[in-house]
Amino acid sequence: MKRWEDNEWSSSMEIEIDLTYGMAEKLGDDRGISPAEIDQLTDRITSIHQQLTEGRKSGRLGFYELPYNDTAGILKTAKMIRNEFKNLVVLGIGGSALGTIAIQNALNGPFRGSREDHVNVFVTDNVDPDYFGSLLETLDIKETCFLVISKSGTTAETMSQFMVVRDLVKKSGGENALSRQIFAITDPEKGCLREIALEEKYTILTIPPAVGGRFSVLSPVGLLPAAVMGVDIDEMLAGARHIDKKCADPRLWENPAYTLGAVYYLADRKKGQNILVFMPYSNRLYSIADWLRQLIAESLGKKYSLDGKEIFVGPTPIKALGTTDQHSQLQLYMEGPFNKMITFFRVQSFDREVSIPVAFQGNDALNYLSGKDLGTLINAEQTATAIALAQNGRANITVTVPSINPFTIGQIFFLFEVTTVFMGSLYNINPLDQPGVEESKKNTYAIMGRKGYEQRAKEISSELTTSSNFIL
Q1: Long-range contacts of 105-112, Cβ-Cβ distance < 8 Å, separation of 24 or more
Q2: Global pTM?
Q3: Each residue of 311-357: pLDDT tens digit?
Q4: Burial (0-12, 13-18, 19+ Cβ within 10 Å), 199
Q5: Structure confidence by residue, pLDDT tens digits, 367-409
Q6: Residue 441's pLDDT band (cuts 50, 70, 90)
């Protein structure tokens, strides 16, 4: 029996959300949220729950079903890669990269040494030529496979990287090497990448049509690289299924995604806390904050409501790291504007215990640390910071993670995806599109000379001319 099949173990690994220091009871009515304010949303939440349930049943909200998908094909492909290659380079950006980076840092570790069964996984999520070029220079191309991820197959950054590595593979191993060394994750039916992959006989995995990039971490997009790393992806999906049971509850206070979403929404709209700071007290969880930034910013930052009105809404998500940013950002959070809601991530039990030796017993400035351990210290600092912020009227909540493992990481991914879609309904916007990003893409196509964008190039040509009056 897998450990995640044990109900007692699964229950012990359930993440906990403590809203105490975000509530009016601690902060006062001006800056804290009262249970009554949350309860006032009950009728809206009942309606939203029905909409989300219908969206799930219809398949429109495809991410809901990802935890229930079979992983056999993913595991088979991952085994092939682990058996044949020393390196895997993931070519992707945004939702095609951030989830994998979060998984890698949380579950694979930053200092994992070289072993015979270890495949080095590199996620190249930018087209900076120094960054990408220097990586390629360090790799033996014949011992490296490349996973190109693009649903449309037209993502400029990803496809330009793909064109570069395709040429390298071809020069290194000939035409036949392409089908062996290049893998693709793309749309199941259409798109430029799919056409190329079929023609050149790449191994293809698919992204479900109703799953957008930033909601795709529990699809092959995140699961294949995770499996190559040696992560138990079935346990990760089990964690997502575990929290799904609670996130499917129509009762506001019994549903952690709805309660958390309501608190974030009210913090923004009623208390002026329109900046969401995600601050893990764990280096391994720091990249989760990066994943959250995209999820929330692209989903909730919108110009138009569902009925076409200009509303310009959306909280601004930023990241910080405890304890590091206590010494860089905390001063602002403590005494700057009252416009932030801080979410701490706290690890209850770390994998390692690093003891602090007994020393300097005659030195009161250091003796109190003797005989303690670093896990106790980092959690004491998180508690102390949360209290100090609340004492200064600063809203904060704490997500406690019992232990960092695939089960708890799966919970975090799924919980915040549901929270985000739920908040989209509260804001009355579409959390699944990103029209602002599309405008930037079209301008890039025009500047780079893509066919069909000639008129766009003419329209923005005047904007390409800067004024010498404003160049410093």
Answers
A1: 105/283, 105/284, 105/285, 105/286, 105/287, 106/284, 106/285, 106/287, 106/288, 106/404, 106/409, 107/226, 107/229, 107/231, 107/284, 107/404, 107/405, 107/406, 107/409, 108/229, 108/230, 108/231, 109/284, 110/283
A2: 0.96
A3: 999 999 999 999 999 999 999 999 999 999 999 999 999 999 999 99
A4: exposed
A5: 999 999 999 999 999 999 999 999 999 999 999 999 999 999 9
A6: confident
CA distances from 111 to 144, 284, 294 (A): 20, 11, 26
User: What residues are annotated to the active site?
Assistant: 298, 327, 441
For 162-185, how does the pLDDT look when each residue is reduced to its tens digit (9 = 90+)?
A: 999 999 999 999 999 999 999 999
Q: What's the rounded Cα separation, in Å, for the pair 83 and 228? A: 10
What DSSP line would sit under 369-384, residue for residue? TTT-BHHHHHHHHHHH
Q: What's the rounded Cα separation, in Å, for the pair 289 and 416?
A: 11
How is residue 44 written in tokens?
Answer: 């809206």
pLDDT at 290 exceeding the cut of 60 = yes
Q: What is the pLDDT of residues 87-137, one digit of tens each?
A: 999 999 999 999 999 999 999 876 554 445 689 999 999 999 999 999 999
The pLDDT of residue 113: 45
State how beta strands 16-18 and 396-401 pair: antiparallel
Angle value at C-alpha 179, between 175 and 180, nearest 5 degrees: 105
Phi, psi of 90 (to 5 degrees): -90, 120
Contacts of 341 (CB under 8 A, 6+ apart): 22, 263, 264, 267, 268, 273, 275, 276, 277, 315, 395, 396, 397
Q: Domains, the chain, ranges and CATH?
A: 3-54+235-427 (3.40.50.10490), 69-231 (3.40.50.10490)
Note whether 225 and 245 are within 8 A (CB).
no
* Alpha-carbon gap, residue 179 to 182, rounded angstroms: 6
What angle (nearest 5°) sits at the alpha carbon of residue 31, between those of residues 25 and 34? 45
> Whole-angstrom Cα distance, residue 320 to residue 315?
16
- Put the strands of the sheet holding 340-347 in their side by side order: 16-18, 396-401, 340-347, 275-280, 316-319
Strand pairing class (144-149; 182-186) = parallel
